[in-house]
Amino acid sequence: HQLLVLAIAVIGTTVYLEYLTPHLKTPATVVSTLGISLSFFIGFLNSHAHDRWMQARAGFGGVQRGCRNFARMVLAYIAAQEEGDEDREARALQKRLIHRQIAVIQATKARLRSDRAEGYLEYLDDDDVAGIKGKSHVPLAILLLQARTLHDAVRSNHLDSYRMMGINAALNDTTAAIATCDRIHGTPFFPFYLTIVRSAVWAFLVVFPMAIADAAGYWAILYTFLIGMIFTWLVDSAYGLMKPFEPIHSGVAIDDLTRTTEIDLL
After folding, report:
1. Is a pLDDT exceeding 60 seen at residue 38?
2. Of 24, 46, 193, 246, which has the fewest Cβ atoms less than 10 A away?
3. Terminal-to-terminal C-alpha distance of the chain
4. pTM of the entire structure?
């Protein structure tokens, strides 16, 4: 883009000053009006792209928060069946539930990245793997297993109904956050609008040196290059924010968030 903007600036200014000056005059007011209008369009594009990125960050942060809350309540509320008994069975239940929740956030990350990696399976036992086999939405399938296990924990006196409702609320929060991430991941960001803005930027850069070359001379090359780089940088930054879950420098750091949550829950 830098080379293309520079080429447009050099060629546009040279052709206008050397060949078109006696025959063509471009009103500066027209170009300035176009530039202001284009600035509004780019501002609108960046504003919505930033909102999309922030919603994605909040959505995946909600998944992380739901997993942590779930693990905290599981450790605090699930107890041995009778006082004085060994809590081996309760500890095994806690471990199984929390390991599943690690699988939830890892499977969510894989889904958002359209990644076929199944590293989350190491946190599921054979029965769990069989329970999610063939399911199109793995995180929700694991959450369903969680709800069923909590129900069984109430029946086996490891958990009372009131506290089960609190733990289930954490599962509901996780489900809602996953839905937010799915909505953003599955909704493209106006690709036609982006194409229009990109085309308008290049069209503006073609006519811009013709509007200022009479007054600025060959300095119009520098001014066109600076204006062009600002516009193209803004459009490129919006384009990067439109894909918040992609493994790019402007994407949400879901790898780090997933790994941090895994460490916390372990």
Report:
1. yes
2. 24
3. 46
4. 0.82
Tokens found for residue 256: 């780090």
Nearest to 97 by CA among 134, 177, 152, 175: 152
Instruction: Count how many residues are written for the chain.
Output: 266
Of 40, 106, 56, nearest to 265 by C-alpha is: 106
DSSP letter at 79? -
Question: Exposed, middle or buried, 142 (CB in 10 Å: 0-12/13-18/19+)?
Answer: buried
For residues 206 and 37, give the distance between their C-alpha atoms in angstroms, rounded to a whole number: 16
- C-alpha 103/C-alpha 95 separation (Å) is 12
Q: Which own/partner pairs from 21-30 qualify as long-range (CB within 8 Å, at least 24 positions apart)?
A: 21/213, 21/214, 24/210, 25/214, 26/207, 26/210, 26/211, 27/211, 28/211, 28/212, 28/215, 30/211
The token pair that represents 187 in the structure block: 């909704």
How does pLDDT run across 173-209, given as a tens digit for each residue?
999 999 999 999 988 777 777 788 888 888 888 888 8
Question: In angstroms, how far apart are the furthest CA atoms of the chain?
Answer: 100
* Residue 77 phi, psi dihedral angles, 5° rounding: -105, -30
Nearest to 33 by CA among 197, 194, 195, 211: 211
- Most confident listed range (56-70, 81-95, 184-198): 56-70
Q: Give me the amino acid identity at 138.
A: V
